[in-house]
Write a structure and sequence with these properties.
Strand content: 15-25%
Order of helices and strands: EHEHEHEHEHEHEHEH
Helix content: 25-40%
Shape: globular
Number of strands: 8
Distance between the termini: 18 Å
Number of helices: 8
Largest sheet: 8 strands, mixed
Radius of gyration: 17 Å
């Protein structure tokens, strides 16, 4: 079986890293995996991750002193990843770790890229408040309008996805801000994408990092990608139902 590397950027998530690692371990029983925390925290998150490492040999840590930025943290995780498949997810448990199993089996079924979606039957963005739903919707549609390769993807601004590592082998990734999936979809090399439904969860603890700076960075990112990837066409995109997703996982 293939190995999966889960890249998790962290910034002051000390209360969430332990539960996240435990839930990932439970979700991926029987699957070889590693969790790579790339941490920019200013609190005691590093200590919390080191405690997790003492309990789980599959957990790795890269702490960056004096650096910030989700996108650059994820790129460091890509460089450290040893798996055949690479996944990205948030540390705040709004991305349910159980979905990793279904993402993994989607790639095992022959797809190059898996994007869980809140916007296909069986999915939900109920974990977002009204303001964040509005900001998220505007960001999605700006991306779809300006970047043709995103048009068939229903949830292109998500922070949750998994792909075969060869998808970024020769990719010129220059992300800024938070929307790393947009960068990988625009600059990566892949032929078949599968979307699977998932339910975005309410954050159990801590605060959202959303800010006006993040919004401006996203607009700059899309502007840059429009010149770098404007001619890239959308790949084949298949949308799975819940029953297809579970069947692929042998349930």
């Amino acid at each position: 079986m293939s190995k999966v590397s889960i890249v998790v950027p962290t910034f002051n998530e000390s209360e969430n890293v332990g539960p996240l690692a435990n839930q990932i371990d439970y979700a991926l029983k029987g699957i070889e995996y590693e969790i790579i925390f790339v941490d920019d925290s200013t609190d005691n998150t590093v200590d919390a991750i080191k405690k997790v490492m003492d309990e789980n040999k599959n957990v790795r840590l890269k702490h960056r002193e004096g650096k910030t930025g989700l996108a650059t943290a994820v790129l460091e995780g890509f460089n450290l990843a040893e798996g055949d498949y690479i996944a990205v997810m948030d540390a705040d448990l709004q991305h349910p770790p159980t979905i990793l199993k279904y993402m993994y089996h989607a790639l095992e079924a022959g797809y190059d890229f898996c994007v869980p979606s809140r916007f296909i039957p069986g999915g939900s963005d109920g974990g977002l408040g009204p303001y964040r739903k509005l900001v998220s919707a505007v960001a999605r549609y700006i991306g779809k309008i300006l970047l043709p390769c995103l048009k068939k993807i229903t949830d292109p601004t998500s922070g949750l996805f998994m792909f075969e590592r060869d998808c970024i082998k020769d990719a010129d990734l220059q992300p800024i801000g938070w929307k790393i999936l947009v960068e990988v979809l625009a600059m990566g090399s892949y032929k078949k994408v599968v979307e699977i439904p998932y339910k975005f969860q309410a954050r159990p603890t801590g605060e959202s990092k959303l800010s006006s700076k993040v919004t401006l960075q996203y607009l700059q990112q899309v502007k840059d990608l429009r010149s770098r990837a404007f001619n890239k066409k959308s790949a084949e995109v298949v949308k799975w139902t819940l029953s297809q997703m579970r069947s692929a996982a042998g349930e």
